[in-house]
Fold these 3 entries.
Entry 1:
Amino acid sequence: MFAKVYSCCLQGIEAIPIEVEVDISNGLPAFSIVGLPDSAVREALERVRAAVKNCGYQFPMSRVTVNMAPADVRKEGTGFDLAIAAGLLIASGQLPPIEGKTMIVGELSLDGLVRPVPGILSVADDAGRLGFEQLILPAANLHEAIGWSKLSLQPLSHLKQWPGTSAPLEPTSHQAAQLRFSRSQASPVDYADIRGQKRAKRAMAIAAAGMHNSLLIGPPGTGKTMLATRLPGILPPFDTLESLETTKIYSVANLLHQRGNRLSDRPFRSPHHTISAAGMIGGGSPPKPGEVSLAHGGILFLDELPEFPRTVLELLRQPLEDNQVTISRARATYTYPSRFLLVAAMNPCPCGYAGTESKTRTCRCTVNRLEQYRGKLSGPLLDRIDLHVEVPRLKPDEIKDAAAPLSNADLLAWIETAHQTQRARGQNPAEQWNSRLQGRNFAAACALPHEAEELLQAAYESLGLSMRAHSRIIRIARTIADMEGSESIQFDHFAEALQYRCLDRDLLPT
């Protein structure tokens, strides 16, 4: 007796279809799984055996062999339980054969309950593209797949509810589904909460308009964290593709239950500086996405940047360039998207008060301590940060006279103008924002006037700029021009862009 059903395993955020073949033959009673299963899949033998018996079915007193193909793909996790049980019961004639091409995913408890598994959104999306007609999934995961896939979704809460039995659940059609957004589009915080700091707010608007990485530098209490945490309120809204990619990541990480069935707002991730390399980049067994992937499409905020281990910070260099993270294992490679906006904050020195004009707060750091502190940030990492923004301590008269501070609405007036201009250029989605312009699109959009070319050449020679910093300054100037509604980059736009590279100019206070 033989039966074949389909399940899948996850590699990164991609679902790979797996054929689950069950053969029941004469011989001494035995139950074995072949096809490169991990320990969790091998343990399915006992879960399936108990679930089948406790649901009133007969477990075959014969030799049962389960083959999972292709055999060269590592099978990980507990999501194969339901498919193995279904194949066993179909092969033994206790369940009717499945009609149509159907994928089956779910974990079984010992009493037959169908438990949720991570990554259902990826499973539903990829199964539809691979030609499957139906997905049998845990009822607790139904909210993840609704509204994204054209598959017929068959939720199960218990093995006894199998389609064709006495008490099945009704299948859910994708047409009847409605997406549930995670939270309101309205931002609960506003830049109007911050007194003064007009230049820093302007820099945040530039970052949001062109999706430029930013580093905020200033003494304690000047508003660096407030500037960063208000940035999501002025970012462009998600498009469908970005939302799908980010929601897939949260589904694979088993975090989607905290955010609804769709991420409608860009994520804001702020890990503590004690985070490990695996926590930042991803890893574990089986591998899970790290903070750089959970921030995909949104913001990764690193407060107190020099306090992070240098080994962790250096790992950011590759995802900042490639917009993805690849985790290699002996038998598989996992790739997670990681296109995020990096925003970091730091003090100018270990004590935090270098350059502060105060009679009571003066810097106590030695030259060696200062060099050691700033040496934690490598040149290649700083080179990948577009905007170096000074956030100075305000003087008493500046606080008193800070009437009508710039609000989200004020900044959005600039930002929306820039977004409309960038979309009108008709670049492909990967280069929609100025920070991602490449090749011909960069050359066409970022031509400089003669006087700006001369200033750039002088800065390149005197500041020792790299070619990466050279192009990033031009991209910032393009964003400023877009905010001003200018078709071309003017000298003033470029001069302002150059002011946001204080680390290149070594103008940090000492």
Note: Residues 2-176 form a domain with the Ribosomal Protein S5; domain 2 fold (CATH 3.30.230.10).
Entry 2:
Amino acid sequence: MDAASLLLPILLIAVFYFLLIRPQQKQRRQMMELQQSVQPGSKVMTSAGMLATVVEIDTDKDEIVLEVAPGVHSRYVRRAIVNVLPSGEPTSPGAADDAPTHEPVAQGEDRTNGDDIR
């Protein structure tokens, strides 16, 4: 076997490592640091997309208690946290805007485009 035939497999392994394995390890390390940095009072988003406030952290069981609505607490594993929200961002979808998102329709007002729908 010559050196050229050994170079190709070594090169493929190196490319595979630097394009796939190393970035995934870096992302996993960043996610673990984020999950460890969560403190009570932090506003977070879970992997299911639920926005909540951290109430309590149980490091022995690696669990956290989240307040998902006023007075409603749920227990999650710490790995469920995927994002920590800035403190000024609302944790409920409707909290950001007090105005309705649609214009109210007056009673009897026709909002169709003129086609008769049957």
Note: Confidence is low (pLDDT under 50) at residues 95-100.
Entry 3:
Amino acid sequence: MGFFSAIVGRGKSAPRGGRDNGTARGFGSGGRTGRTEARRDPDFTSNLAPEITPGLEADMEALFAAAPVKASPKSFATPLRPEPVDDRGVLRATGLAKSYGGRKVVRDASINVRRGEAVGLLGPNGAGKTTIFYMITGLVKADAGRIELDGHDVTHLPMYRRARLGVGYLPQEASIFRGLSVENNIRAVLEVVEPSRKERERQLDALLEEFRVTHVRKSPSIALSGGERRRVEIARALASRPTFMLLDEPFAGIDPIAVGDIQTLVRHLTQRGIGVLITDHNVRETLGLIDRAYIIHSGAVLMEGSPDEIVASEEVRRLYLGEEFRL
């Protein structure tokens, strides 16, 4: 199943298995999904590049469904409450809870991310951080709690509808359309969100230059290096104009040079005014680029603070980092 089909096609029941001893599995890990089918937007008329083959149809249907739209009361499953001024530009989760088979994996966890900052969601294996992250993305349904975007309740919205409102997500696994060239990966999204062909091409050129992939714009995506692929994935994600980006294990399985590349990309996102939430097991690399971190332990928030405050905490060192940890 393709990346976008996986987002839209996930059914009502939460995925089984995975990290945190019972949490949802990431894409490509073999987790079961529901049978809900992506629905084609009847108002959309495709003008996609010729490289898009019938084999990509399901992926593209889901991509069309995930296109951002202007928020309105009709976009939400539940009525909107008045938008508080201090909640503008904030992705907030409050009192999240989740159990699997009678075992509480997450209990009363609350976090927030503001636009223009990078926040880490860290903790030992099995602590519940992945489940919290997946509840915020919409991959896992929360048993209790509330998730808000700019003061609007999005708790019960599926993942693709959160994407429409500005919540972007990059999984650990490759999500690029391998059958397309680099430029057509990005153009596929722009054709959904930008009606003007001239403006689409201008934005395409700008994104290719911004992420330093102009030299491979005609190359097949399957031939890219790991760092190039990640830059193209982020450029494509930005084509849909998100206000928040959720990055799942961005440092997993990459070499030291690519680590620096990812750190630079995250800083670039925050400089654009995009809020970034990162969950990763590579603590040192993550603490080296974020503004704040939440340390999750036994399903709850153990501490929230700056990287220096996190490292200085005796309790965090005792339960997670170890006494010898240094930034």
Note: The beta strands are 90-100, 103-114, 118-122, 144-149, 152-153, 167-170, 244-248, 275-279, 292-297, 300-305.
